[in-house]
Amino acid sequence: MRRRSVLTLAAVGAVAGCARGGPARPEAAAAAPALAFPPRFGWGAATSAYQLEGAANEDGRGPSVWDVFSHQPGRIRNGDTGDVAADHYHRFAEDLDIMKDLGLRSYRFSISWSRVLPTGRGTVNAKGIDFYHKLVDGLLARGIAPVVTLFHWDTPQALQELGGWENRDCAKWFADYAHAMFTALGDKVPTWLTINEPKTVVDVGYTAGIHAPGKQDRRLANVVGHHLLLGHGLAVQALRATSGNGRIGAALSLSPTYPADDSDGARTAATTADAEENRRWLDPLLRGRYPQDWLDSQAADAPVRAAIKDGDLAVIGTRNDLLGVNYYGPTHLTGTGARVMQHPTSQATWQEIYPDGLFDLLTRIKRDYGDIPVSITENGMATENPLQDQDRITFLRDHLTAAHRAIQAGVKLESYHLWSLMDNFEWAEGYSQRWGIIHVDYATQRRTHKASADWYKTVIARNGL
Ligand code: GCO
């Protein structure tokens, strides 16, 4: 099951193995880059709290749905949990120095909601927020801009027991949490992201059931999706109500859709999939309305119809300052609506590696939604190659080339956050998949540069390829 989609994967040659483009070309001399990025381009990397921090029961942190889910037998490969992860909570100073050494200009991380509000609401946990003060101060002291994600799937368990995102009140609870973070950190954090990948929560947490909270109810999932968007809108309004001058948006997992053949059926299937994959999220945020074809596709008695209250879309469509784009690959549809893979995959076999899809996606956003500033908030691949990850270098080079082409085409792309800074807990796959440019030996917590880290450091130093 493709992690990001409930579309059925037909058994068409999923070409495993290296990313497109063959072996990496030998590094050019340290001359001016052939592909120069704009001055002050935000070369970055991304992580998330539950995947990296560990210290799950330390300093007053409360449980999240991922603490509960990962401890349920059979949920996570090899019985892995995020209890320790990459122990970033204790090793953040070392990790900050690694980021500085790489030359990062931006670092995207998420706040553990239940670390700062152990029951999701009420009084901020002083030790919890103190960690994020130290992390943000450490970033700023190293000249690295913090990009803070408020929700990266780790709903406080106490709120889940009140219905979580199935409960419309969760949108308000989220906005109150966001306001508390804006109050605590708003004078230091220039860029906020509200919700990371609402689509994945809907598709994988509530439909496929292989992510927390492990539910399998598509009708309920669409209600959750609406409440996530409502929470986003309320949080945007909460930031605007503070004196903070930060910018805010959401991080959407977007996948350009293509017909897998030249049949009318495949073209129709690609349009339908585009509504589900992309427009169902982009239109509410950037146009203040759901796409009509998506609404029409909801059954007359679909609970989501009742969940959409008068005024909701005006809140959801409150002006966003930027759009976060998580890009991992395209979606190809046959005339029967089945998803087929037409490009190489990675260690994460749901992933289809197609760099040109990033160009298509970014230029489509500009064409259809205007010149909203865009940040690539995630892009990367998993590979078994522990240190000599030439396949990842090829992947990164090809995708950065596509990103450069998009900039040349007028896309207001301001930053690129590689997923991920270092190996971490990859959700249902546990520690079996490695997405980092820094290798983590989980037995010793030793960090080691992979070839891709050295390559990325050079790219940043040259501001281009
Ligand atoms: C996502 C999440 C990340 C994943 C990454 C690799 O986009 O699914 O933001 O937490 O680890 O994408 O799957």
What order do the helices and strands come in, and which of them pair?
Blueprint: E1 42-46, H1 49-52, H2 65-70, H3 88-102, E2 106-110, H4 113-116, H5 126-141, E3 145-151, H6 157-160, H7 169-185, E4 191-196, H8 198-208, H9 218-241, E5 247-253, E6 257-259, H10 264-287, H11 292-296, H12 303-307, H13 312-316, E7 323-326, E8 331-333, E9 339-340, H14 355-369, E10 374-379, H15 390-408, E11 413-419, E12 438-441, E13 446-449, H16 451-462
Parallel strand pairs: 1-2, 1-11, 2-3, 3-4, 4-5, 5-7, 6-8, 7-10, 10-11
Antiparallel strand pairs: 8-9, 12-13
Helix pairs in contact: 3-5, 7-9, 8-9, 14-15
Task: Explain this structure.
An 8-stranded parallel β-barrel has the order 1-2-3-4-5-7-10-11, surrounded by 6 helices. Strand 12 (438-441) and strand 13 (446-449) form a beta hairpin. The model is unreliable at 7-29 (pLDDT under 50). 40% of the residues lie in helices and 14% in strands. By secondary structure, it is α/β, with parallel strands linked by helices. The radius of gyration is 21 Å and the shape is globular. It starts with 41 loop residues before the first strand and ends with a helix. The protein has one domain: Alpha-Beta Barrel (TIM Barrel). The site of D-gluconic acid (GCO) has 11 residues, from loops. The site of D-gluconic acid has 11 residues, from loops.
